[in-house]
Write a structure and sequence with these properties.
With about 160 residues, this protein is α+β, with helices and mostly antiparallel strands. About 25% of the residues lie in helices and about 40% in strands. It has a single domain, classed as Alpha-D-Glucose-1,6-Bisphosphate, Chain A, domain 4, CATH 3.30.530.20. Strands 1-2-8-7-6-5-4-3 form an 8-stranded antiparallel sheet. It is built from 5 helices and 8 strands. The longest helix has 9 residues.
Length: about 160
């Protein structure tokens, strides 16, 4: 499994995932930059994602939904806040309504993805920063840690394709 660690830290209001892959930095970057690749792993295997909008640039908007086993759609949004290709991506991430618009932008988390060479492999560190301990605990109770581990475990298949 590519995820080598996941850490929930209430003191820093973060959840951090570290994964390593047998691929170049550029190839790992593509799983974020290409929405068709992104939707093949963003979300656990039983909740695949579909990106309806994906503007991969600072200030760009993304709108997506994940479809559950019973057909339920959980919608989300991103606002991309920074891109330093192929090493860093930052975005705000939140829940969306049935029209794919943000439910409460103040309840968003902030994601920071760092991709770097690591001894012949590539290390991807994903940090979600929360606005409060309550928000962190709510997301943890919703299964975010397990879901992200399962989601990132799907990336290996994309890198060998």
């Amino acid at each position: 499994m590519p995820v080598i660690s996941s850490t929930k830290d209430v003191d820093t209001l973060t959840m951090t995932f570290v994964a390593e892959f047998e691929a170049t930095v550029e190839k790992v970057w593509e799983v974020w930059a290409d929405p068709r690749k992104l939707e093949r792993w963003w979300g656990p295997p039983t909740w695949p994602a579909t990106f309806e909008r994906y503007e991969f640039e600072p200030g760009g908007q993304a709108r997506y939904y994940m479809t559950g086993p019973d057909g339920t759609k959980a919608r989300g949004w991103w606002t991309i806040t920074a891109i330093e290709a192929p090493h860093r991506l930052e975005f705000d991430d939140g829940f969306a309504d049935e029209n794919s618009e943000p439910v409460d932008p103040k309840d968003a988390t902030h994601g920071t993805v760092t991709i770097e060479a690591a001894g012949g492999r590539t290390r991807m560190t994903t940090v979600s920063t929360f606005t409060s301990a309550e928000q962190l605990e709510r997301m943890a109770e919703m299964g975010m840690e397990e879901g992200m581990r399962e989601a990132q475990s799907q990336i290996d298949k994309l890198l060998t394709a």
